[in-house]
Amino acid sequence: MSSRSLLFTSSSCPSVDAVLVSASASRYEGDWSSIPHSHGFTELFYVREGKGNFLIRDDVFPITKDDLIIISPHLSHTELSDSSHPLSYFTVGVDGISFSFHDHKDFKIFNCRQKKTDLLFYFHSIFQELDQKQDGYESICRNMLESLTIQLKRLTDSAFEVVSSQQPSRECADIKRYLDSSYSEPITLDQLSAISHLNKYYLSHEFTKYYGISPISYLNRRRIEVCKELLETTDYGISDIAHLTGFSSQSYLSQSFRKYCGMSAGSYRKLAKKALPVNKAALQSQSRK
Q1: What is the pLDDT of residues 54-71, one digit of tens each?
Q2: What's the chain look like in SS3?
């Protein structure tokens, strides 16, 4: 006979500080209208069957069987079913955590069709546990969510982190999305105040409370991240990059880049050009020290 023995050596298991607030199983039967809406929690949307479109703000994305969409809190969205191939899907609402994607988007669509991992099992299990509420269902749901998250990290090329979070107000979430998409424009705290209809001091306090950084500091950090991408992937001059990323001058970019990254933009570009793809993560880590 032959045998294999495997030892589990970890003394502790990672966990996510998440609260499952809802789970639903739906099938389009032509009896409801798709109306854009948002939630105060993160939503996981998994397509079981059929196909259609998913609307996120003003953008439209085709979806079909085994697509998973992660939608951040306060993000307007809805689904539109193909009448000849009706959508059937699970949704799971999760409070207390957020998915921090490395491309700064507040949603992600994962194509799971070519993967061998059965993500549908986790969604079905969570829905069943919340529906039946047998002894210990809360623990099972938490474990299912954690397993689902780990499987996502395994199958996707789009890096993300799961972090505990307080849910931001709608105004703060809107300002963050505005900064993520409009970083190349000249932006002041007074402008953000006008956009959010909040006193600028209150806005700054609330934004810092939820995101751990002030709106203007977040804007500068966002610009620096884009600068790094352009330094790595293009031959634009530093002055051009300053213009493309919203810095008022090359000198201000240089000052900010050195403050955030601990090196000049030129030095970062030289390191990036020399680094092999497998070393890019180390380069990013080095620049944040």
Answers
A1: 999 888 999 999 999 999
A2: CCCCCCCCCCCCCCCCCCEEEEEEEEECCCCCCCCCECCCCEEEEEEEECEEEEEECCEEEEEECCEEEEECCCCCEEEEEECCECCEEEEEEEECEEEEECCCCCEEEEECCCCCCCHHHHHHHHHHHHHHCCCCHHHHHHHHHHHHHHHHHHHCCCCEEEEECCCCCHHHHHHHHHHHHHCCCCCCHHHHHHHHCCCHHHHHHHHHHHHCCCHHHHHHHHHHHHHHHHHHHCCCCHHHHHHHCCCCCHHHHHHHHHHHHCCCHHHHHHHHHHCCHHHHHHHHHHHHC
